[in-house]
Write a structure and sequence with these properties.
The complex is a heterodimer of chains A (565) and B (333). With 565 residues, chain A is of the alpha+beta class. Helices cover 32% and strands 19% of the residues of chain A. The chains are: A alpha+beta (565), B mainly alpha (333). Chain B: Pfam families: BPD_transp_1 (PF00528), BPD_transp_1_N (PF19300).
Chain lengths: 565, 333
Amino acid sequence: MKKFSFLFIMLLSFMLILAACNDESGETEEPSDDETGEQESGTDSESESESESEEADAEEGEQVLVFGRGGDSESLDFASTTDGESSRVTKQIYESLLDFDKESFEVVPGLAHDWEVSDDGLTYTFYLEEGVKFHDGTDFNAEAVKTNFERWADPEHEYAFTEEGYTYAIYGTMFGGFKGDEDHVIDEINVVNDHEIEFVLKQPLGFFLQNMAMSYFAITSPAALEEYGPAINENPVGTGPFKFESWTRDDQIVLEKNEDYWKEGLPKLDRVIFEVIPDNSARLIALRSGELDIMDGLNPDDADIVEQEEGIDLYTRAENNFGYLGFNTQKAPLDNKKLRQAINHAVDREAIADALYNGYAVPAKNPVPPSYLGYNDEVEGYEYDLEKAQELLAEAGYADGLEIDLWTMPVARPYMPDPETVAEIIQADLSQIGITVNIVREEWAPYLEKTSNGEQEMFMLGWSGTNGDPDYFLSSLLHGDNVGEGNRTFYENEEVNELLDQAKVSIDQDERADLYKQAQVLISEDSPMVTLVHSRPVLAAASYVENYVPHPSTSESLAEVELSN
Amino acid sequence: MLAYTIRRLLILIPVLLGMTIITFSIVHLIPGNPAQVILGETATEEAIQNLEENLGLNEPKVVQYGIYMADLLQGDLGTSLKTKASISEEILPKLAATAELTIFAMIFAIVIGVNAGIISAWKQNSWFDFFAMVFALIGVSMPIFWLALMEQWLFAQELGWLPSSGRESSRDPIDPITHFYVLDSILHMDFERLFVSLKHLVLPSIALGTIPMAIIARMTRSSMLEVMKSDYIRTVRAKGSGQFLLIYKHALRNATIPVLTVIGLQTGVLLGGAILTETIFSWPGIGRYVYDAITYRDYPVIQSGILVIAFIFVLINLIVDLLYAYVDPRIKY
C-alpha cells in the first residue's frame, strides 16, 4: 500500500502544479500544430503574437467566432426537423430561393435574384443566380430546386428516406399537405431552363413567397443526397457562406469559410464554431472569460448587468411569439363571453412582463406579433381594470364568483419561460374579482393530448412564428378548421373563418393586411384567450463582434459578421 | 477464485435481463406519446400518426420489447429517435468523456480523502482532525451546482486561470482517437493540447470529486481509528517501527476494505453520469446524454443508456469484490 499512496501523492502534486500554472507559461511555447495560433480571446492576446506559424490559416487575425448556445442541433437536414438549434446552424450552410431581411420578415432575394407572380396568383417564376456551386463542386440549378421540393412533398421519393424515419412536417404545415393530399397547394414544378423555375399552384397562397424564404426550405445538393443518403443529416452540403467541417454531438459544430461563395467579399469569418453550454449562467461566465464570442439565451435577469458591463454588448431579438391564457370556449362556464371578457380585464400583463422577463417583453393585445403584416394597433385590447372586470362578471351571472381549473404547462418555452409563476400571478389576479383558480398540472404529452381533446377549462400555451406571416398565427390558433390542432380554445366564428380564408388565398398584401385587421377586431371582442406578452429574447456578444444582427426567427446569417481587434 | 469469478459473471446474466425488463417498463410508463412530444405544440394530427408509424410505436409493447431484445443480443443498442444515429456509436464518446472525468475526480477524491482520513485518525482530536472533519461534513452537504458555479466564477471569470466549460479549447479541437482527450493528446504527442485538456479537467473534477472525497475521508478515519486500537498495531509500535511505516504499511492495509467498498460504489455512481456537473461544465458525458433523451422521450436512448450505466455499475462492484481478495488475502471465496 505504501507504493500506492506514494503514487497518489505524486499524482496529487502533479495536479496541484498544473492548477498553479497560469496561462502564459503554457501557451507562449511554439505551437506544435497548425491550428494553435487561433486563440482570439482577451486573456490570450499576449501570447498570441508569439505563436505565429508558417501555415497560412494560422496567421494572426484569422477570424474565428465561437457561438454559445443551450442545446445541440437535432439534425442538419433542416426540413426534417422543427428544431431552432438546427436551423440556426443550417442557415449558415444552406440558402433558400428567397431570404428574409436582416431584422424583419420582409422577403428579399436569395438564390433567386428575381421572381414573378402571375395575376391569378397561381404561377410563380423564379430566376436563379448563375454560377453558384454547392460545396461539393456541383452546380446549383433549377433541377436541384425541383429535386429538393419533390423530396419533401413525396414520401415515395428516392431521397425522402421515409424508412429511416424522416418526415417533413413543416412542409406539410406550410404548403397544405403532401403529394396527393387535397389541400397540397403545389400542383407542379417546371424547370424552364437551368436558371428559371416555375411553381404552379392549385390555389393561390398569400404567403407563398414568405415560405420560400424560410430556412426550412433551403436547397441541398442532389449529388450529396445521392452520396450520403439518410446520413445527409450529418453531412450537409449547400451553397451557403460556410461549409460543414465537423460535428461532435452535444459539444460543438465547426463550420469553415466557403472560399468560393458566390457573394463577393463574404463571408468575413474564417471559421464559425457552435458550442453547446446548457446552463445559462455557465454560458455567461464562458462569454466573460473569452471562451465564447456570442451567447444565445441570456437570462433576462442578467440583462441589466450585462448592459453596463464593459467589453460585452447586449442584443435583443424582435418579438416573434406570444404566450396566452386560453379559454375552452365550447365548455361551461367559459362558453360565456362576458365571463371571458371579465377575466381578460383582470389579468395584469405588465406584472407578468416584469416578473418573468425583467421588462424584456411587451404586453400583447393581439394574437400576432406587432411587427407583422396586418397587425391591428387600433384594437383596444383589455386594459387591467378590476372594476370593469367585476361589472362584466356580474353581467355574466357570476357576481358571487366561481371556481375554474387552470392547466399550467410543465415545460418552459421562449414565450413562457416560467409557466408556474405565470399561473400563480393569474391565480392571484383572478382571486381579486372573486374567481377561485385551481392550478392543474399535467405531463407535457398528456397536456398536449388533453387540451387537444378539449378536456381543459383554462390553459396556457403560446405560439412562435416561422415564416413571418400572420396566417401562421391567426389561422393556426383561431380558425375553426384547426380545432384540436393549433386551435385549442375551440374558437369558431364563421365570420373570422371567412376573413382568414380570404386572406390566405389573396396575393394582394394590402388586402390581406386589411382582412387580418378585421379578424383581430372580431377575435378581441370574442375574447377566446388572454394574450399575455410577446417576449423579446436577449443575448450577449463580446464588443469586438461587429455586424451581428439577431433575426426574430432565431436563425441569422453570420456571413457579414466580423471581429475587430 | 476463478470459480468465484465465473460464478459472479454468470449471475450477471439474469441481473442484466432483469435490467432490460425494468428499464423497458419504466420508460414506457412515462406518460404521453413520444411522437407528440417530439413534434410539440404545433404538430398536426396527421404528422403525429405518421411519426408513430415510422417509429414503430404503434406496435404492442411486447412486440416492441421483443424487437429490442433481438437487436440487443446482436450488440445493436438501437437507433436514436432524435438523431437517427446508431446508439452504440453515439454512446462511446460520451462514455469516454464521463470515464475520463470520473477517473480524475476519483483521483482527487482518493488522494485527498484517504490522506486526510489517515492524518485525522493519526492525530485524532487535533486541530487538523477537527478542521478536516468539519470540511468533510461541508463537502458531503455541498450543493454541487453551487460549488461548480463558484469555481467557474472565481477561477474562470475573476482569475482567468482555468477554462469554465467543455473538454478542450473550442477554437482548437483535438482530433479524437480514443475519445479520452488526455490520452489522445499524448498519442498525438501534442503536449500543448494535453495541458489544455488537463486544465479543462480541473474544475469539473473538483466539483464532482468533492462528495466522494468527503465520504472517503470520513470512512478512512473511522476505519483507521478502529485498526489503530487493535493489538497488532500495539505490537508493531512496541517493535519501535517508525510512525509513517506503521500507518501506511501496517494499519492502512487492514483499514482498506470498507474504504474500498465506498470507493467502488462512488466510482459507479460517478460513471453513471453526473448530470449536474456535466450540465454546468457542458461536459458531453453519458449523464447528459440520457437526461436529454428523457426530455425528448428518446426511448431507445433512455433504455440503452440506462442499461449501459447499470452494466458498468455491476461490473465495478464485481471488480471491487475481486480486489478485496487481493488487498486482504485472508478473504476466501
